[in-house]
Queue: 2 jobs
Job 1
Amino acid sequence: MTDVLGSLLMRESLDHCVKCTICETFCPVSNVTPLFPGPKYVGPQAERFRVQDEPSFDASLDYCSGCGVCTQVCPQGVHIAEINTQARAKLRETHGFKLRDRLIARPTVLGRLGTPAAPIANFTLENKPFRLAVEKVVGVHRDAAVPKFAGRTFQKWAKAHTAPATAQRRVAYFHGCGTNYYEPRLGEMTVELLEHNGVAVEVPKQDCCGLPLQSNGMFDDARKYVHKLAERLVPYARQGVDIVGTSTSCTLMLKREALEILGLEDDEELVAVSARVFDICEYLRAMHDRGELKTDFAPLEEQVVYHAPCQQQGHGIGKPALELMALIPGLEVAESDATCCGVAGTYGLKTEKFGIAMDVGAGLFRQIAEAGPDGSVCDSETCRWHIAGATGARSVHPVEVLHRASGL
Amino acid sequence: MTTLQADVLVIGGGATGAGVAWDCALRGYDTILVDRRDLAEGTSGRFHGLLHSGGRYVVKDRDAAVECVHENAIVRRVAADTVEDTGGLFVTTPDDDPAYGDRFAEGCRATGLPTEEISPAAALKREPLLNPGIKRAFTVPDGSIDVWKLVWALANGAAAHGARVLTYHKVIGVRREGDVVCGARLRNELSGEEVDVEAAFTINASGAWAAEVATMAGCEGVHVAPGKGIMIAMNHRLVNTVVNRLIMPADGDILVPIRTVSVIGTTDIRSRHADELPVTQEEVDQMLDDGERLVPGLRAARALRVWAGVRPLFEDKKTGDTASTRDVSRSHAMLDHLERDGLRSFLTITGGKLTTYRLMAQDIVDAMVRQRGEDRPCRTAETPLPGSEDREQYRLGTRLRAREDELQTEQIICECELVGRGRLEAAMRRRGTVNLDDIRRNLRLGMGPCQGGFCMYRAAGILHGVDRLDGPHATGSLRHFLQERWKGMWPVLYGDQLRQARLDDWIFQGLLDVGHVPADLEGLPTPVDAELQPATLA
Amino acid sequence: MRHDVIVVGTGVAGLAAGVRLAQEGARVLVLAKGIGATHLAGATVDVLGYDPARVESPEEAIGRLASAQPGHPYARLGAAAVGEALAWLRDQVAASPMAPYAYEGGLAENLLLPTAVGAPKPTAAAPVTMLAGDLRRDERPICIVGFRQLKDFHPLLCAENLTHAQAGAGAAARGIELDLPVSGRVDENAQGIARQLEDPVFRGALVQQLAGRLQLNERVGFPAVLGLQDPHAVWSDLEHRLARPVFEIPTLPPSVPGMRLYTILRGALRAAGGRQVIGPEVIGPVASGTRLEGVRVRVGRREEVRYAEHVVLATGGFASGGLVLDSSWQARDAALGLPLAGLPEPGAPRFTSRYLDDQPMSRVGIAVDDELRPVDAHGDPVYEKVRVVGASLAGAVPWKEKSGDGISLATGHRAAELILAAGGAPAGLTTATQEGR
């Protein structure tokens, strides 16, 4: 069926399902709540009962967090999570989009609003009565870990930053909304680490990749955002310049999810960009394979837990962060076996899903608590905020660990 | 030996026979309906599910087309629950002559069939998997009809009016007193017991087997040509509209979305006997190739099951054999044996198509009423069948939506087709059957992609408890179901379905080891073609 | 990055090879397009159950089978190699964090364990949690306990059939269906129940339900739900509280014992420095002549190459899409395009009309030489450093013979041995320690 629209290809993959239950054994959500009947059920099974133009009434589908673990473990090649996401968009279209979802799906809008007034915004967001009101009115759980506004943007820093003269290669940095408004320091560290290893970093103007919009079913808006982003990044792709990203979920969006789920196979810019996008650890590991990475790391006598976010695993590249951190003397890294921390982007923020998100992550949180005070390492910002909120311990991006060990 | 009495004995539990029973019951006749197997195991249960708009006949057989136009509307009313308003398309593929479309349009005009020519782009928007090279497209009011639901609604409706329905009762002799037919002798195929039915009137609605029954009554020269056709059910809806090829009716020219599957059909080969319905490799390949014309990539899609049905094509002995069974009339034939053979109280109805079941039933019951000198009008055109009282047509998402309400309260047994435990147990009790295949026909148990791979063991375990069967009988039922399902799978066992079958082999044989559990097959039907040549098919 | 060995597939065959190699210092990369059949199969080690009569002693029977069927994988291995592999697996389990959970059994005499439908099934080895169900020479009556919420297991049917299957002799069996102690879901699966059984309070409630309902001498059989992380604790606690032997019976997927086995082997791979990446699908070889340099993989939308000295193909046969039959009745190996053996001629039947009969397609797979290298129609190796293991092999009908686990385990283990003998480890040794775990 290769001559068919990209998104239909996802649906057609339901033919491969042999009902083996493997996806169900791995689904973090259905394993903690009966409200979600499981990926096999809402994906390839229910899809046989769905008609394109007819409304959708299977509300239980909404409990799918979109973590994508089901697709990864399926031995038959069913694009389960992608089918679910598409079906959920249809469900939302039928029943309308909540104001909450419209808000939290637009991080740049929130970012632009919150950044100038960061101190007040952050104070408000920590204020219990305010959070209670937000929960009641908007539907974001009062205890959901929302990040702090940094009060400045990474873009601004990048504009003022001059790259060193000597560089063997260059990359374009797709930093994502999280870095821009909430973790600009991570962006700085990324640039510094790359420059330290002889890579010049260009930071193009950029906006959201549209992933939260896609996860929340607002496909048309998601398409607009991802296309705009592709337009900004495609000049680099066409020049053969690699595009690296520190938000592993956003890079996956560009690598594959936008094309598969939003049916954008005809978007030439996006296709060109998608072929040149790399997760930052993936990129650094490739540099290491070629002998281009500086491995004179200072020892870090710490014990951390590394959690590969569900969407990092969706890249199918193994866990390069583990391999990189293994180069740092003294650093003990315990690998978490959890498939998902629970937050799955914006899922765990929602009032009706927060409890589920906490149950999903319970095992991981326990492992981190038992490991000691040094906290965890994780490649996705929404995961880090959720994990830090639940464990009270720091959660950092692998780049931060490498940056420190590089003595920068 | 048991003797039963009734006003009317209806022989044949397909759509026609069940329709006759319903019609009789509504007119106040005490009716017995019999079938040698389960209801609708003959022709009715083996067609693709098309509720004809008539479009397939507007050029070649305008009378048939007019009938369809008319009956289509009635069936949608009275049997709403069994009909899905899929709509239909007639499309000119790159291999077809676009000029035929004009003849088609003309035929629609002449027969009153509503149609509209739309652009190929519009057709592709509606059905994205269609051949992108189609040149012309017309819409028609085709629908798809669930024949199991229909036949059981007719039978249950008749039963609610006092009729008795006897499945697995084969007619082994027609009773006569002089020139009056007064019923039949039946044999219970599961127990071997014989039953006599004394009926004031007998209606032979046994379709492709009508000649056998008529001969048993002493009528000569009745010939029903078995026109075999195979159909393949594809795992999911490749299309949601019925798609017809815009040509003179030919093989493999229709793809019908019916419930959760789409069915590609059909071939047309004269068979020697209505029970001899081999599925050949050539036919399978032909269907797949024909399907590719309509939906490129169909060969890569998953085929679930193939089966052969037999069209009852009545031949008037006076005109002799015809070369192609397709050319023999598709309109139904009613044999008035009083006129023809001097036999009273016996009528035969055969031929026809499922869409006109109600009309066929009406015609024959009217004829019976006339022969009896009574005045009882037909009410089937206005009376909704059980389940269709609200006149809401079936929608594909029905089961999925209903399941939402019982997610936390009802255990799901057949996951592919969303059959819950409560419904399953109720059906087992209601039918009082040990045959899981009967349940399959009622509930679609095991009709999804895994073809019972996961639900068969569960159902056997539940049957064991509900029916208080002993272990070997429950296992026998499981083995019987395994074999029935294999029958339809193996000729199209490739690709994804082979993966499924192999996984199921690992489960049934490797894990459960069903081959080494004592199995008692008593009370289960043997294959109809067991007496004919062995089924070794290349 | 170059590995010593790439293993394609993460079922028992692939993991057996991968773990053995990694433990000897080879740099191992296990690539799999998804999880393997560990999660679906019963996790007993079925070596040879029927040939076609019931096999008492696999040791003997393997020898006979090898002579009678020279194309069978066991003909490439011999009973000694199978025995070694089984002993190796037992050691792995015994040395794992899940100890004292262990496998028992060997090739001398098959156990006879009940299946979920009540068949007495011969198997060579099984976890300790299943052993009390052995039907050999044990006439103690059996009480099979199931749960209404677990539709994947039917205790009364199982018990009745078990009694009938033993034809009046042996152990009488009866069944009881309980409601799960804590009213939670109406629809459970084995994994959900296994998790709950790891809670001692839940176990206590279950024991309470059975109090007074069990007869004096009865041993108790449950579906295979006796814990995921610590099955020995769950099982021995139940035995202790019920004061009688307890055993579990494998049933429909998800297979809890299979998931345990996966956890053990996956953990052993990780501990030995092996890597596993789930997601990439191997779609072709990178080779010149009989020299394979690596494999082409599809990762998401990209096609990349992974290089290795050796490749072990453990792709699971037709069930997992490792071998493919298309609608034109052409069959192929989806990973490396290796030739298949045993295929019926074009036009000849691939299947017969009776389900339980021998099917022509059953034995189709990749034929190998004594070094487990894939061979062509002339019997010559297609590649020097490729080994084929497990269900993708030609010549067996594992689900009928009850030989699947034995074939997967033994060929996987043997492939590792052969690679090590061919010098497959040293290159990776130093680097593996450097990146150590």
Job 2
Amino acid sequence: MAPRLVVLSLASDFGCQVQLTNMTDELLDVLGLVELSYWQLATSGHMPADYDVAIVEGAVTTAEHVELLASVREKAAVVIAMGACANIGGIPGIVGRSDLEGRYALVYGSGPAVAEGRRAPLPIDSVITVDYHVPGCPIDTAEFLRVLSHVLLGLSDRVPDMAMCASCKTNETVCFFDRGQLCLGLVTRAGCGARCTSLGRACTGCRGIAPDANLASAREIAARAGVRAGDLDDALRVYNAMTEVHA
Amino acid sequence: MAKLTIEHVARIEGHGNITVDVADGVVRDIRMDIVEPARFFESMVVGRRFDDAPLITSRICGICSPNHVLTSIKALEVALGVEVSDRTRLLRKLLVYGSYLQNHATHLYILAAPDYVGLPNVFPLADSHPDIVERALRLKKLGNDLTTLVGGRPVHPVTAVIGGFTSEPEAEALQGYRDLLLGVAQDALATVELFASFPVPDFRTAGEMLALTAGDDYAIYDGDTAALEAGWRRPCGEYREFIGETVVGHSNAKHSTVGGRPFLVGSVARANINADKLNDAGRAAMAKSGLTLPTRNPFHMNVLQAVELADASARCAGYIERLLDMGGSSIPEPFRIRAGEGGSATEAPRGTLYHSYAVDDDGIVTRGDVITPTAQNLANIEADMRAFAPTIADRSTEVFTLLVEELVRSYDPCLSCAVH
């Protein structure tokens, strides 16, 4: 029997779900391998009582999200975290842990905004165990298909541990630090093929900090290249604000 | 039917519920609750460097990210006094139109079409009507590929920066896309025919309509904001002076008004205001649509998006010819960081998108403001639902629900955009 699949989203911009619809060459083949049980973006229908695989996009920002994830973990044999928000907190994480009231005041004035159950934005593995990871902002569809095939074949999660620099070496991209510019590729998890740097944009860290990253050494390299002290850590606060960064 | 709630309305971007209170066939209350949690984007950019703002605010929306990136960049260019080349402007227009092709194809075929063929989603059509699904995927793919050609990837493009682009497509690749764009003319016309063939309710919105308008182009990248009924034109960067925003209790999305009235943005407003700017392909598509402009029917958003597909594919082919011919550079020129304020707008697929920022002498953002198309449309959507619901109150719950959802989906709403 084909695994019953649900696609869910928490706090996100739907960009990774849009990437799923962007698999114009593969989408129909993928749908032939699974039973699509729920996907609010693409189909009418209600959340089913049972399913096998849950793809979750978005960061956890409300008590309702926590409840939903608990129920997802109970029902699904496999949970896939899709995108930067679900994997590392991502852009929603910029909001951080403090001064939510100040942010409400700045955006909504004294108006009656809906603040029920609001909590600090966190990745979904802060609430439940995640089986497979597709990082990135947005996800790369080729990587998604690779992970999904691992899920369907029962293979293990194989998200790369090394830093992005290796990809730039392979691509023969001139290092940003050689031009005196900051790049987070030094400490960011590889796996996207270093698309941004090959297009002239420094890495912004959307895939999260690599387990193999050496932050102390990265700060030294940045300083040697003439990057202002503190800029590397400040840049990490765009996508990785909710990740503990050790000195 | 007493109280009816449609939770997590399907086939729209973001999370929203519709609540209808009906007694004895009379609709007592109807509202749209945007249940997206607050996202605080306007606060996220404060205290960060100006060049982080386009990257951060792009993540307001995964479906119209090229518009967010470019609107943010343009507003900051106003604030910092940065000029860009004609070549950069043309490349940016291609980036916006790539997003139009992708978005319109997605909205029309994947999100809206199932309503009119009695299906929960588009996928079963792959077996019964493969020609339609293949056409949808061709248009969507071309949009994605065009966005990728110019921006580096279809969602959250990376090459567009303040002052220009960090990377440009090769001439040969551009030439190839010119031919591909001309090649989808038939697909665009077939889309117009398909959506013109779907019967829609005869309904008139009471709202004002706003869209960008500029010179002799069908404005999507720059221009003034024009009001259809009031007849005025104002610089789009001054939007905070003519669009009022109010916080409502039942939603984290603010509602917008102009002159105290709800208003509509999107393809209906654009086509009404800029009908005379449509190119030959757009005019031919208009003729096929059987519509006469101006129209006040929001259900016509769909067929007019299809008309825009025809206009856009021919227009982009023309832009590419000019790019191949003109020379020049899109490499950003160095500029001095200075304190300033600025606002700007583009036409996102679902309507006008405004951004504005203030930066200090060190280039740190001290204020950020965004009004998205769906935030502008929400008050009008609710007003439309209130006017429309009583006219269909005698229908079965199933039909009533579908018609209300169809109305909402016609606006191509993006609820994550609405709560930003």
